[in-house]
Amino acid sequence: MIRMAKIIKESKQEENYRKLDKKQKQLILNAVNKFNKFEQHIYRQKDVREVVEAIKLIAEYAGQLALDETEHWFDGVTVKKDVKEIKNSVKVFEKTANEVGTLQHRLEAMYEDIGNKLSRYYEIADLDRTIPLAPKNNK
Questions:
Q1: If the chain, 139 residues long, is cut into consecutive pieces of 10 residues, what is the mean pLDDT of each piece?
Q2: What span, in angstroms and rounded, lies between the C-alpha atoms of 76 and 84?
Q3: Which residues have a Cβ under 8 Å from the Cβ of 17 and sit 6 or more positions away?
Q4: CB 125 within 8 A of CB 34
Q5: pTM of the model
Q6: How far is CA 97 from CA 22, 60, 81, 90, 100, in A?
């Protein structure tokens, strides 16, 4: 019986510990209300694929220019080796960017999922307006 009394006492202490005061509740409501402000950090402004394509073109043309100029200024063997390494690095860069793109889509989906579930219970302000802070009334 002593064990049971101890368990009940600890349970009551945990229950009281989990209760939030008015100030804590308001802080949580404020944070949830501003959930959409994270959007600017979650969604990328420019697509990574555009950057990859630009870097591929730069590497291709710069490599060709370096090879064309080799006969006059540069050591041809070194330039060919460097151009080949640049091409290999661009391939790895492109592969990594594709992986980042996949993870980015997953990140966006999870962000939306969290927002949708929070919005079942709380008001979340649109980015261009604010809403009174209170739990959602589910009537």
A1: 69 67 87 84 76 92 85 76 94 93 91 94 77 51
A2: 12
A3: none
A4: yes
A5: 0.61
A6: 46, 18, 24, 10, 5
